[in-house]
Each structure stands twice: as C-alpha cells, then as structure tokens.
Amino acid sequence: MTNMNILAFESSCDETAVSVVRDGRQVLSDAILSQADMHALYGGVVPEIASRKHVEAIAGLTDQALADAGVTKAGIDAVAVTCGPGLIGALLVGVNFAKSVACALGKPLIPVHHLRGHIAANYLAFPELEPPFLALCISGGNSMIVDVRGYTDMSILGATRDDAAGECFDKIARVLGLPYPGGKPMEELAQGGDDAKYPLPRAKVAGNDLDMSFSGLKTAAVNLVHNAQQKGEALDRPSLAASVAAAISEELVPRAIEAAKRCGHHTLAAAGGVAANRRVRADLERACRENGLRLFLPPLKLCGDNGAMIGSQAYYEFLAGARADASLNAYANLEI
Ligand code: KG4
To answer: Which one of 67, 103, 120, 290 counts the least CB within 10 Å of its CB?
Structure first.
C-alpha cells in the first residue's frame, strides 16, 4: 500500500507525541510535548503526573499534528499507538485516545511496541536501511541488543539484568546535583574530563555474555560521590562524568559488535535516548569501522521518544497484518 498516512500516538513515559507518517518513511508532522521540566522538580518521572499531563496534552497535539501535516481527518488511513512497555497509566492515556480516534474515523488501529518504534526511528533518517541488522536499543527504561531479522521479526540477544543505561546516567547525575534527565547534563559535564581517573566496575554477567548490568556501576559512582562529600574531599566532577560515560559505553559497544558478528550482520543501528551520547556514538563509530560494520546513528531528535518512530513501525506492522480492536490494552512489560 502506498500513500498511507498513519496518525501515531506515543505516551509511554514523559513525552506526549503525535505524528503523521507516510508509508513508514516520511514524517509529515511530529508534534511533541515534553513533561521533563515538571518531573525535574522531583528528580525523576512521577507516574501519576505523567498520566495527567498526557490527558491534558493529547487532544491539542493531535490537532497540531494534523494541521502541521496539512492532512484532514479524512486523509488519515490508520491510527497507531504505543501499547507497551512503559508506565501503565501513561500508556493507557495514549491507547484509549487512539482507540477513540480509530473508532470515530472508522480506520484500523495498529498496536506498536515502544522499542520496535525506537529501532524504526532509523528508517525515518536512513531511507536505505532495511533489515536484517543488529540494533542496540539504549533508553531510560531499557538496554538491549536486538537481532532485527525483518521489520516485524526480531529477538533479544542480550539485555540489562537490572538498571537501564539511561537510568544509570540519570541516577548518577542526581547525586551530582544535575537536573533530570541527567544523560545530557552528564555528557556536558564530561567535556575535558579524564575518563580513566576513576576506576569504575565493568560488569560480567553469568549465563549470557551479551547481557548487561548497570546497577554495580551506578552504586560505585554514587558511593564515590557520597564518600567524597562525607570526607570533605574535592571531586573532579568532569573526570567522574567522563569515567561513567566510558564505563557505560564499554558495557554496550563491545557486546553490540560481538552480537552483530554472531548473527552475521554487516549493519548496526543504534536507538533510544542514550544513542544521543557523544561518547557512545564515538565508540560505536570506531568499533564499527574496525570491524567492517556499517553504522546507522539516528539524528539526536529521533533518539528520544517521539511519535514519528511509532508511525514508522506501525506501517510495517500494518503490512504484516497487525490490527487491534477496542479490547486493546496497555502493557507495562511487553516482549519485543
Ligand atoms: O529514549 P528515551 O527518550 O526514553 C525512553 O524510552 O526511556 O531515553 C531517555 C534517556 C534518559 O535516561 C536520558 O538521560 C538519556 O536517555 N539521554 C542521554 C543523553 N540524552 C538523553 N544519555 C546520555 N547522553 C545523552 N546525550
């Protein structure tokens, strides 16, 4: 099917996003409202506030997305929504709104997995990218290595056993007094820092060498900060931030390369908020060059949550026959 306009909703965490995407690859509009400032007051996402803010924003953003796209309601061919994983109350806002819109317009409803959406952000930036490839999905809630055999055929090769990479950045940023979300402020702080100054642990996970763990690293960095504060010692903050970024990147990048080799993939794509990180991007670039892999790094604005990535993945889900009806639910945890 061509010239298919999908109206897509994303509300799994603290961004309300509505987008119109044509044929899975062309972004006609991408309306987004971040609640990050609100949650920053509390040092992290407050689920109840997130749900309420989604309710307040979603109708207005829908009007904006249609207007920006220059598409009327009649010009929408299908409605898509993130149904999981994420904060359950936040997801339910998007799912219920999307159901109502699909019902009112008489159009098909397509459920989309949030992480499949993150991977699909690459299709929007790189028209030449097609499966199969290896995806490194690194966001605030998830860190996983995914074998993308087809647009809707994928499996997890490795994942974090505890915290996500983004969460690790965020929690360490918090003890350093940096604003939420802490990934970007940590990146800025790390500039000019010595990434070898603070020896931080690199995890080895028993059972699956592609699995990851970030909680030991998080605790080590948090303890380091608290000890320095208690002893009244000066902390080299840029070097600590640089050491954290190095530790996180060394957890992620070699595993992604190893996974690509095992699958026989020649292409690696990064996805999710942490894929915006300068250190991670630089390490991926070098490692892919050294191992003869083609690397796709989405532009920064497509790394974080957005509606366009959901609209992109939805097109391929639609082609594969995915449809939902009014019984569609939201799921805090959902297999990819
Ligand atoms: O993909 P995303 O917007 O939301 C989820 O689906 O979780 O990712 C948000 C995460 C946050 O933890 C944030 O601190 C992190 O991505 N992040 C970064 C950077 N920009 C965002 N982490 C490291 N460096 C960055 N530049």
So the answer is: 290
